């Protein structure tokens, strides 16, 4: 994933520079998203589009006429238009206009996974959900490559009766590209074309739902790909590949293009997906940082989806291990971080002095051709420590194994640079920024990645030994308890939540490292121009890969419990998540090598079969989210962006005193620097099979916090009955001010179910803002 992300960022930088220079020379038009009150339309207009068109005609004149790109009516209400800054300012003053937001560019953030998650054909979530047959997953991404075996519709019935979507046919995407598996496909590009100032160059990009990048095909097949035998990536990860919800239907909404993904296009896809009738939306896209919810088009679109009963799963981002880096943090979104599997692709470094350092690789060459001991050099002594193309001295690297530091440029680009300079092989060594996180890549030359500790030893050996040598030993695919799994990826974005301190994010972690899934036939596995290879499956990493795992699990839960709300589905995934690895030890954070925390992994790692029968759920209604916004300091005008102005919101009657009072399945407690007391009420609903279940509470926390629960016993007499409890946290003194935090949990158990919620504690100065 890092390869494609860095490429996207490079293009994004060039794109923004070009756009900025052109707009600074004149008061040219830009794209704005205008949110309006649904009820304000004058009766003289037959449609909202007529109203919007008339409104634009009344704006101050400009050499560039204002024009509408999209109208929104299902997940949001309003339109996207090309406007000058003066016209946008004029619109903001008009009655019925809730907000006028500039368009924003967002970035794109398997054979073993089902077994690792405990999914089986004979018991649990798969058979109980009928593999999510008739559940529709909307994938908002780079499109789809429909010819893959992963999208076979063998054994599937016709599309659900309530499906309203279409297959948007074009030259390279005929109507026959859709079937009973891919039941919908559309492309959204008006925001992109408006920003670039010209139509899409169809020699470089496909102006259709066809995926020429690979990302969307990978995420779609992860969420809902059919079972495919004899899958694999060259000689790696061979076996049966299957999406989480292998009988779910897929609707592909192409929103991302070479520079990235524009808000106006994303919101249009949300709007269409909800109108089409999807049950789950999967979005592995996000901004560089989390922003206020009414300024965040993904949060706005996801709120509209929640209003229609659609569960939305989003990636947390790949900006870890920095604190406050998680994005897509609205409470109505399932925010997913990335973790490892118990599958590895070892490629060890053997030094000339006999030491062996563990690494990983997906080098596809014949192992018989692996280089024997060759001279070893450190790239920093050859012109470029990060191995930038064109900066390595061929005289110093020719025929040698080159040690390149990770960072600066794409991982696979380093191997390409070494190859172009005449190097024989590469060792990519982590620095402190990446710790012991190992991501396997399909390099064009023999290459491996090693962690920081091994990297420091290899660098030291290369610089100190008068004639250093090394070789790489490739060992294929290994499954087992060593190294332990899951572990949290260093790149996985994490909390604390920079928008709402009292809301713990991310929510859960799921497999996102070295994930095998379907790939486009248009691009190589490395996306390098010099790479001629084409594959049916590719192995990449990112929270982009963990998100569709959870999207697929949400589809399975919707299939098993069709009456559950999106919040109930999220609650089931969160309260049944686990925090121990396959060796019985606390989950590790690869960024530090130490124990992970709820700021890093949220409630823990998803456990699908336990989520099928969680015992209790913390349900949340859309009206509760409105009260959450009130408690977060939003006034009626700001909230109307979400409610579409259908009714004036009176925040004075809100039942939530603080954002932390939302009936969320986790807790984030914020004390002042001198301590204090915080109490929250929660309501749990009995969804277990026992109508007379009795649950007792057990709490744990740091020594400087006293936790009390009232009542400590919840006695249910009927199924779907709801009971409330109050939990109080008292700081027994000052704590550590900062982002590191202290942690605890509350567990409710009836002897057969364990309903666990993590608790994060922080002490902050009252004047400190997270922005």
From TrEMBL:
This is Subtilisin-like protease SBT1.4. It comes from Stephania cephalantha. Its main location: secreted. The active site is at residues 141, 215, 544. GO terms for molecular function: serine-type endopeptidase activity. CDD domains: PA_subtilisin_like (cd02120), Peptidases_S8_3 (cd04852). It comes from the Eukaryota. Residues 31-109 form the Inhibitor I9 domain. GO terms for biological process: proteolysis; system development. InterPro entries: PA_dom_sf, PA_domain, Peptidase_S8/S53_dom, Peptidase_S8/S53_dom_sf, Peptidase_S8_Ser-AS, Peptidase_S8_subtilisin-rel, Peptidases_S8_3, S8pro/Inhibitor_I9.
